[in-house]
Amino acid sequence: MQELNTFNQDLMAFLAASPTPFHAVSEMVSRLQAAGYQALNEAEAWDLTPQGRYYVVRNGSAIIAFSNLGGSPVENGFRMVGAHTDSPCLRVKPNPELNRNGYFQLGVEVYGGALLNPWFDRDLSLAGRVSFKTKAGDIKSALINYAKPIAVIPSLAIHLDREANNTRSINPQKDIPPIVMQAENDQQDFRAMLLAQLKKQQPNSDAAKILDYELSFYDTQPPAIIGLEQDFLASARLDNLLSCYIGLQALLSNHDQNALLVCNDHEEVGSASSCGADGPMLKSVLERIVPDAEQLTRALDRSMMVSADNAHGIHPNYADRHDANHGPQLNRGPVIKINHNQRYATNSETSALIRHLAEQIEVPIQSFVVRTDMACGSTIGPITASGLGVKTLDIGVPTFAMHSIRELAGINDGHYLYQLLAAFYQQHSVAIAN
């Protein structure tokens, strides 16, 4: 129980420190450096040592960390885990200033498939990356986080919409611009506000002008263990920072195998970017680890990828939305996700490997298959499998309220998946005899 409590307390600290993908990667870098991992620059030559531990960051929002501890990758392959750093949210538009009826608001764009209703009446803050010009004329970037509540999206009172509980829908252009403050005039300059905040957070930045930004609103309510018996973990961004944290902790526990963790950005919007799973980042890193094309193909044939992304737990109020035989329960173990139309990359062989491993370490396993009459989501699993030709499995922690501003998981499942991935990283072989 002490180990479980320590795991969940550290998980909540990670979630609280990671309001955006940029902050999540920064937090992961700090933890990797503390564990002795060395930074690599993609613009420079790499001199990798046989026992080395390394990481590389792209765009500040995606990261790959790996260790060469298991001998030749050509002979032993890689144990790889993949996740993603982004979550559905509200992103600030380039020209966001809205002055209406004495209130200053910021125009926002919905990022990903956000569940919008829960964003109303929340204490919101703002964080992300800003790019600025210094007094010397250089262009730099920095992370920014207001941390305290600075905005809110108030609901319309039911007295003004008597059918709200029956018919209210949300227009993302009109209904969700957050209110930031009262304003006497329309002279507010959002970039000037950002400059003041940057100087407050980083007095030595020498910033003279904000040129651009990528900023997300987020809920300031911290993660919490809840429930009468403390059964549940409630937090923002469990999809998919929960998997990022689990993958990182599992990687840091590895001491004798070739292990790799990739946390891509932009999964929630299709993964098609320079730092997304449908981009070249992972392949280019693997090609630099194993430069010879034939040897890399051999290494990948001896490798396996576990794509870790949350699964839909069966909701007691909406049990009919699940296939009756495939309704994962919270606190009953990680969920292998299966879709024969290749929305998930799991096949019978990769599933057998993980099920066998779970039996060995006594971790419970569940299965998820979407109802046949419903559309199925997807993950970075099929994208990575098709891009690299590596055998892949999709797995995740069961959760409620996926894509809400606050999601719910069981307190045991994250630790179960950590145990499973830590054991996976230690496997001497992922070959399947035919």
From TrEMBL:
Assigned EC number: 3.4.11.-
A molecular function GO annotation: zinc ion binding
Keyword Transcription tagged: no
Entries under CDD domains matching the protein: M18_DAP
Gene Ontology annotations for the cellular component aspect, listed alphabetically: cytoplasm
The UniProt record lists the keyword Kinase: no
Cofactor(s) demanded: Zn(2+)
GO biological process terms held by the UniProt record: proteolysis
Species of origin: Dasania phycosphaerae
Protein name according to UniProt: M18 family aminopeptidase
Keywords: Aminopeptidase, Hydrolase, Metal-binding, Metalloprotease, Protease, Zinc
Recorded family membership: Belongs to the peptidase M18 family.
InterPro entries for the chain: Peptidase_M18 (IPR001948), Peptidase_M18_dom2 (IPR023358)
